[in-house]
Structure formats: structure tokens, C-alpha cells
Amino acid sequence: MNMKFMQIAMKYLPEGKKMLDEKGIELNMEDLQPMLELFMNVMAEAYELGKQDATK
């Protein structure tokens, strides 16, 4: 599942990077890594909530 989450993150990464660039915030991939890890944690928790809800 983590691989699917990473694919989703990479799909939207250019859009997010563009938003940051427009605000004058420069980040490289090394800077974005902690945010990607946070995204993965959020997605995993959301997945588990959905899974629990589906089994009820």
C-alpha cells in the first residue's frame, strides 16, 4: 500500500512544487522528503480508518 501512496504523492508533487515556487518558497527533493513521509503516514492512517469503517 505504501507504494501506491508514494505513486499518488509523486503524481501531485509537481503541482505542489509549483504552488510553493509561486509563493517564493524554494525546496528540493531532499527538503520535500519529510513532507512525503508525513503524507505517507496520513494516507496509511486514512486507509486504516476506511478499512475499519468498511468492516462495520
Blueprint (SSEs and pairs):
Blueprint: H1 2-22, H2 29-54
Helix pairs in contact: 1-2
Describe the protein's architecture and organization:
The protein has two helices and no strands. With about 55 residues, it is mostly helical. The chain has one domain. The model has no long low-confidence stretch (mean pLDDT about 90).
Key traits:
84% helix, mainly alpha, ComZ
Taken together, the total number of domains comes to 1
**What is the share of helical residues?**
over 70%
Order of helices and strands: HH
- Estimate the strand proportion: under 5%
**Oligomeric state of the chains present here:** single chain
Overall 3D form = elongated
Q: Count helical runs.
A: 2
Q: Compute the gyration radius: what is it?
A: 14 Å
Instruction: Average the pLDDT over all residues and give the rounded result.
Output: 90
What about the largest sheet?
Answer: none
Structural category: mainly alpha
Task: Compute the separation of the termini in Å.
Answer: 21 Å
Low-pLDDT runs of 5+ residues are: none
- How many strands in all? 0
InterPro entries: ComZ
Protein name: Competence protein ComG
Pfam families: ComZ (PF10815)
